[in-house]
Amino acid sequence: MSNYKTVFLTLGILQIILGVSMFIPIIAQFIYSEIDSSFFGASIVTIIFGSLFFLSNLDHDKKLNLQQAFLLTALSWLSIAIFGSLPFIFSTMELSITDAFFESMSGITTTGSTIISNLENTPKGILLWRAILQWLGGIGIIVMAITLMPIMNVGGMQLFKISSNDSSEKILPKSKEIALRLIYIYSGLTALCALSYWIFGMGKFDSLTHSMTTIATGGFSNYNQSIGYFDSVPIEISSMIFIILGSIPFIAYIKFINGNKKIFLNDIQIRTFIKIIIISVIILSIYLLFNNNGNFSLRSIFFNTISILTGTGYVNAEFDGWGSFPITIFLVLMFIGGCAGSTTCGVKIFRIQILYLFILNQLKKIIYPKGIFIIKYDQGSVDDKFIASIISFIYFYFIIFFILAALLSLTGLDFITAISGAATSISNVGPGLGPIIGPNGDFSALPDISKWILTVGMILGRLELFAILVLFLPSFWRN
Prior knowledge:
Layout: H1 5-21, H2 23-31, H3 38-55, H4 66-84, H5 86-90, H6 97-108, H7 124-152, H8 171-199, H9 204-215, H10 233-247, H11 250-257, H12 263-266, H13 268-291, H14 298-309, H15 324-336, H16 349-367, E1 376-377, E2 380-381, H17 384-410, H18 415-426, H19 434-437, H20 448-462, H21 466-469
């Protein structure tokens, strides 16, 4: 195991950070007179384990090869979900291990599905901890998507390498430099979001927690009605703005700071992202205007379209009552997701774009068999290796979706619940469809086996599938 000292050292650091973060909800417990030992005990346990990992792996060369990068990625999210569930287990809510792990995994993967039925009466410390988990998960996925995933060649993410000369041995130094800048940007956007919420009428506590889950596009709220609880147009507009800011590539912020002032207008992903929102809103507006006048609300259409596309999962209306066509549109949006290098999930817009270019290229070859056509994306050519990586990712994405849906149906769930549950877990969206897990429902009524299946879908979707699947190949472990 000496070859994996860097992996366990990093896991130790992450657990120490997680353990220290558990002290923050203790402040909320003091303020709201909800003092118990749940967070203190969970923090001590987490810090002790983290310190053991850290101190026992100090004597190493601090290098990380490709094999170790995959292992670190999977173990990081799994260990944080395990230790992040301790406050739920130790709390006065007396959640089962299954429910606690489900809530923790939903938080750290920024999914936003919840098993808590009565959020209004949930202790403030637990509500704050849910928000912290999503906030940490959001910055974690950004750092991973920009530093680790491109070098690991997962699902075409190698298109976003910061430097073509980076080798796997340089992952850690490069990650540290980029991660610090990303954390500053991420924290700044969170502070601005909290300020805007507070200005427009949210209380200080709600502003803090909702800002953390907004920028993370996680969607955990303190109320069963989600953002709809506030019934405020300014709050919903602020939410949409900061959801979009969390859904665009964070590397664009760095480029903007470095002098590229037109990056937000020129970035091909951002332009397509905005187009998808506008087209979806127009289609839904036309449909609801002529087919369901009682449910037509441009405000609700805009808000829920942005929330579902980005995987945030906030709701301000029960959109599952709009009819079968809007539900189909939302299901498609769940799969599309946001931009690569953001806090969003789903297939990602750049993969949809390249798949479209590939299909267009194939049609040209049929028409002009002797022609030579080169696929170009964002002013660069895309070779066959990238195309194969993206096609295989999309193929496995939908195969795993159907497997999850089939497994959920075997546990006794109805068709709509099984299909939407599988979609919402692998796309890390949050709410599903139907009366059980719909916009104003929750996942508490599902059988325990269904919840474990959904947690597997969450981590698979969050880590771009291959970062987990490759660990089960025997050839992966051979030197």
